[in-house]
Amino acid sequence: MIARPRPLPFPYRAAVALANDVDDTPSPAWFLEVLRFLNTRAVTPLGPGLGLEVGSTFWFYTDEPTREPFSYWAGTSTRETPASAPLRALWRSGHVDSLHTYGNFTRFGGFRRRHARDAVAEAECHGAVFRTWINHGTGHDFQNFRTGFGDLPWLEDLDDRPEEYHADLTLDHGVTFAWLGDVTPVPGQERRLGLVEAAGPRIVREAFGWAGRALARRLAYRDLLRGAHNYDLYGNRLLWPVRLRDGRGVYRFVRYGEFNDGGADSLARTLSPAKLDVLERAGGWSAVYVHLAQSPNADALLPPEAVTALRDLAARHERGSVLVTTVTRLLRLRLAVLHVDARWEGEGESLALVLYGFHDPLGALDRDPRSPEGLAFELPESHQRGQDLPLPVARGPHGDLAVGEHREDGRRWLQIAWPRCVFPEAEVDAVLRSWRRPV
Ligand SMILES: [Zn+2]
């Protein structure tokens, strides 16, 4: 008998991930302090920590270390920086889970395929896999997919491969999800828009804007944009498969927010009580567009209105209504819910949930051992009547899966474990202490 999962692990009804672009991060210490505030319950300069699960992007390189001083390696070299060791700890824990491209090359350019090769080798040497890619920057950031040369294997008239091409290395490494510029003002994707909401002036204006820009772009770049799709605001999907220009597939995802309002203080608007109410009521999923280090008051770690919004989000998470997790986990979970192939087999005490794998269009989930995490299945009627029957086991392609039981309204559910990312608190604290010590 086919088993279909609940949209989210218990007890949540909606899901949010902060998708932070690292632009303008003033120092490694700032970065660690902010992640510590978001992910632990420690006493921090912003008050008690929120105890959420919030990740971030990062950069391997920066072409302008004075203005963008936060990178894994020094400048565009492969020399370590003070950020290297703590970043490795955060790769391992899953908190630094996304590439905001390989580095900041916004000012002088200069990204080459070898930068990608060195970065991937470094990640793999430390057992890290980045599954999410987020385009960054301007015309100098040639490594971007679609808008740069990152996914362009050859130029027709030159019959030559651009030096910046890296999509083969990057996707072979494990990148599965890519943000290529799509933003929506709708809180909560993967749900139908309400009538009033869909007809609201904000949405209608945005839809016209998209259509207008799409038309203009299509006229201007007829060849380049063949096969490129524009975000369908009314379809309101969180992610969908696309082909990059070298023919490889990724899941393109949309972020929730406003292009021109992506600083830390924008959280007061994107995560306002009214917006979170909509998201919660409608059961949506959102990756929130934000640059946590872009703030009107440079002295505070985060602007007070952002902290207030984040505390509200944390309260909803605590109440069990909104799941807060990293971008990679959010996207993977959504994909897994849609494409899992699971069946109940056997009966009585020998009933088992057998997870055969996933049928996602790009076959990405079967390559990722963490894909089954958080899937919850209602037990068959025999086990609803037989409340004393033991909880069935769950078998995955790689062996038995850790499961728990959940009961709601007298119904029994089996849930595959959703283990929290464990923040490397002791390590981060030690690093921060050593930096605070005057030398
Ligand atoms: Zn950026």
Summarize the SSE layout with pairings:
Elements: E1 2-3, E2 14-20, H1 28-39, E3 43-44, E4 47-48, E5 56-58, E6 61-62, H2 84-93, E7 96-99, E8 103-104, H3 113-125, E9 132-134, H4 167-173, E10 177-179, E11 183-184, H5 195-199, H6 201-220, E12 239-243, E13 249-253, E14 255-256, H7 267-270, H8 273-282, E15 285-290, H9 304-319, E16 322-324, H10 327-339, E17 340-345, E18 352-358, E19 376-378, H11 381-385, E20 393-396, E21 399-401, E22 403-408, E23 411-416, H12 425-436
Parallel strand pairs: 2-15, 2-16, 5-7, 6-8, 7-9, 9-10, 10-13, 11-14, 18-20
Antiparallel strand pairs: 1-17, 3-4, 12-13, 17-18, 19-23, 20-21, 22-23
Helix pairs in contact: 1-12
The protein binds zinc ion.
The site of zinc ion has 5 residues, from loops.
CATH C-level class of the largest domain: Alpha Beta
CATH architecture of the largest domain: Alpha-Beta Barrel
Number of strands: 23
CATH fold assignment of the largest domain? 7-stranded beta/alpha barrel
